[in-house]
Amino acid sequence: MTDPDRIRILFVCLGNICRSPTAESVFRQRVEAAGLREAFEIDSAGILDVHQGQPADARMRRHASQRGYELDSISRPVVPEDFARFDHIVAMDHQNLADLLSLLPDPAFHSKLSLLLDEAPELNRREVPDPYYGGAAGFEEVLDLVETACDRLLERLEP
Length: 159
Description:
The protein is α/β, with parallel strands linked by helices. The protein has 5 helices and 4 strands, in the order βαβααβαβα. Helix content is about 40%, strand content about 15%. The longest helix is centred in the C-terminal third of the chain and has 22 residues.
């Protein structure tokens, strides 16, 4: 059973092995550092179920651990119940957002959807790029973008 007093956030990317588990871990660390662990419920999921049951990408875990983050979530797909359970469903890119819109079980949930980088307009970016097929620089870029956007998201949502 979910606690109605908690702010529930779901981060979403394509496969739930790079960007969304990174956002989940970064945001969780920020929440804990602010002493707000009990105020939030934080999770991540993917549009696809191709990686279901798998840990985050080893390269993403390695880069994240160098910055002090532990990506310990296990990949799962978005399910219809997520739309009712979470207050904020935060997509990493426009395609993820479009996919979430196509999965909406009820139009009333539309207002829960957003793009992560909309939290940080100073970055002049709207999408967190998928680092899966790139090199080390792509994973570092994801971390840079996610850290800034998660800081802004917490500033906006902090109870």
